[in-house]
Write a sequence for this structure.
């Protein structure tokens, strides 16, 4: 979750307000009964514009081996997701925070601090798989549909006054934060993440192990996890839900799956050198 300048958010929100209201595509099995008026092609376009705004606010890592590594790990997981027909983009932010986030349309960012904090590739894959879950389930545009549906309705009630719409949009998104997903979105992203890990051949226990690591870290260094806890449900609830999802996978298959790779060890060595 990042906080953008109000003006950037406002222009982004207003662009969406002008979009056609034809029905957005739903992904098989995971968007049932979730209204989404934004077409997928528009979502990708918005994601690209929004990513440019994000990249004005953050510093990206320029280390080629690291970027290639994150991209190839992310792409392999995205290929096994429910929405594998769109391009995905994975980038590393040079920041100490232990966090990651997804914009609508396949733009996923992970903080360097998170890569430093994980202890295995399956943990890192778990984080990326969770973010891919948000993209595949189209949580961003679902939220916008829900929120803008209300504001557009309100503006109609108020005589379709554009400045009134601006005020409503700013009130809805300016302070609350556009990228704050709901608790049910987070639970769905965890559930999908476990599935994508398993389908890609990763040990799905990585997700639970990462949560346990965060719980321990939170006691030692609460500051670097402040934003993570502000934007995610309690870890104990998530851990239980992830374990329940894992119980559906035959245990003998989990033992055979990937936990680490030479590339992951190389990235770790790179960070330790700095
Ligand atoms: Zn999430």
């Amino acid at each position: 979750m990042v906080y953008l300048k109000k003006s950037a958010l406002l222009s982004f929100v207003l662009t969406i307000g002008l979009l056609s209201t034809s029905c957005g595509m739903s992904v098989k099995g995971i968007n049932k009964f979730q209204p989404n008026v934004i077409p997928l092609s528009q979502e990708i376009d918005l994601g690209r514009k929004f990513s440019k705004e994000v990249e004005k606010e953050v510093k990206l890592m320029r280390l080629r081996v690291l970027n290639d590594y994150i991209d190839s790990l992310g792409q392999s997981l995205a290929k096994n997701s429910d929405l594998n027909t769109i391009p995905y983009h994975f980038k590393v932010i040079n920041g100490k925070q232990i966090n990651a986030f997804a914009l609508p349309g396949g733009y996923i960012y992970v903080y360097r601090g998170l890569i430093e904090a994980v202890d295995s590739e399956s943990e890192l894959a778990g984080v990326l798989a969770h973010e891919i879950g948000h993209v595949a389930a189209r949580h961003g545009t679902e939220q916008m549909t829900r929120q803008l549906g209300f504001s557009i309705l309100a503006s109609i009630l108020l005589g379709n006054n554009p400045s009134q719409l601006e005020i409503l949009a700013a009130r809805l998104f300016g302070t609350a934060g556009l990228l704050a997903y709901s608790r049910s979105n987070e639970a769905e992203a965890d559930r999908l993440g476990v599935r994508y890990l398993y389908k890609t051949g990763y040990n799905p226990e990585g997700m639970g192990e990462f949560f346990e690591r965060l719980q321990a870290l939170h006691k030692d260094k609460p500051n670097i996890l402040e934003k993570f806890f502000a934007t995610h449900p309690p870890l104990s609830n998530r851990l239980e839900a992830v374990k329940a999802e894992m119980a559906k996978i035959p245990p003998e298959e989990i033992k055979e799956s990937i936990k680490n790779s030479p590339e992951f060890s190389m990235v770790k060595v790179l960070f330790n050198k700095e």
